[in-house]
Design brief:
Blueprint (H helix, E strand, L loop, with lengths): L1 H4 L1 H4 L14 H14 L6 E4 L15 E3 H6 L14 H10 L3 H7 L2 E6 L10 H5 L2 H9 L5 E3 L8 E4 L7 E4 L12 E3 L3 E4 L2 E8 L4 E9 L4 E5 L4 H5 L10 E3 L4 E7 H7 L5 E3 L5 E9 L1 H38 L1
Length: 327
């Protein structure tokens, strides 16, 4: 163990252990480029191949994904290369399949980025994942991607997938990556915070709305119909049933909404009916554990305030008693 800890001394890398790192200009340029695309507030993800740089730019509306994680977890069903294959083969397998572009579209991935190769920047990435140029060549061979020009001096390799869908989108049928006859459309929504989204829907008679939410499937994502307060959510008022929420083919969340389910699960005051029999809905998509966090935090604050008031009142009571005894 002692010899292992002395390794930086022998290979002369100890001099770099405590040196501050400055963000390379290439990543500053990438941030500026992405900022321009973020101005319209449209949700998109970046996919970092083989994995993310330490300088990765992101926010809640524009998160990033490690391709190494996606290929072995969320996209594992599309990875037919086998675990014994080299990292390059495993990572590129989902993208090389016939429906690779559709997989990116439905996962809301707009940009694919290969980090730089430079010592003490991102060079350590390729010590495990292999030759950087092989990843660039593999992406360049995909005709559905377009190379982004960040300037001749920029060493980052950036590719654009122009057909990516937003965070929430509907489909004419249940999501099926192998069915080319399904139409997908982005759904407008109000972003409240990472755990809550609000949108409006119109459900026609006999229609089932297939609502897709491009986050890794979690049964705790729920839908509330109508004007849903935190109190309504706490008591599960006007919830759609769990049976309406499924893990879809690519490992994300899909909700199936029709009039029969709404009539069984919600009160009449939670929706409006039009002359043509259509239902007009205000929908809240939220992460249920946050409700308990909010109320738990409120209870903790209330308890703290009560304890402080009790201490102050006892102190005043003792002081008053002491004054009365002197009198």
């Amino acid at each position: 163990m002692l010899l292992f800890n002395l390794k930086p001394l022998f290979n002369q890398s100890i001099g770099t252990l405590f040196v501050g790192r400055t963000e390379p200009g290439e990543y500053v340029s990438l941030q500026k480029y992405l900022n321009e695309r973020m101005k319209n507030s449209q949700f998109f993800r970046t996919l970092w191949i083989p994995t993310a740089s330490r300088w990765v730019p992101f926010d809640y509306q524009h998160p990033y994904v490690n391709a190494s994680d996606a290929s072995s977890q969320t996209w594992n069903a599309f990875n037919t290369s086998g675990q014994a294959q080299a990292p390059l083969v495993q990572i590129m397998a989902p993208l090389n399949q016939n429906n690779g572009q559709k997989l990116l579209d439905l996962s809301s991935i707009r940009y694919l980025i290969v980090p730089m190769f430079q010592n003490y920047v991102d060079g350590e990435i390729y010590e495990y994942y292999g030759d950087r140029q092989l990843y660039i060549r593999a992406l360049s061979s995909l005709n559905y991607l377009k190379k982004v020009n960040l300037g001749q001096a920029n060493q980052l390799a950036v590719f654009e997938n122009a057909g990516s869908l937003g965070h929430i989108y509907s489909s004419s049928k249940p999501l099926d990556i192998n069915n080319g006859n399904i139409n997908y459309h982005n759904v407008s929504y109000a972003y409240i915070d990472p755990s809550e989204y609000r949108l409006s829907l119109v459900v026609q008679r006999g229609q089932t709305i297939n609502l897709n939410f491009s986050e890794a499937y979690d049964q705790n994502w729920r839908i509330c119909i109508g004007k849903c307060s935190w109190l309504d959510m706490l008591f599960k008022k006007n919830y759609l049933p769990n049976s309406s929420h499924k893990k879809n083919q690519i490992g994300l969340n899909s909700f199936y909404i029709n009039q029969a389910t709404i009539l069984k699960s919600t009160s009449k005051s939670s929706y409006r009916t039009g002359a043509n029999g259509a239902m007009y809905l205000n929908v809240t998509l939220f992460y249920q554990p946050m409700i308990y966090f909010v109320y738990g935090s409120a209870l903790s604050v209330a308890t703290l305030v009560a304890v402080v008031l009790l201490i102050i009142s006892r102190k005043l009571l003792v002081e008053n008693r002491a004054k009365n005894e002197k009198i």
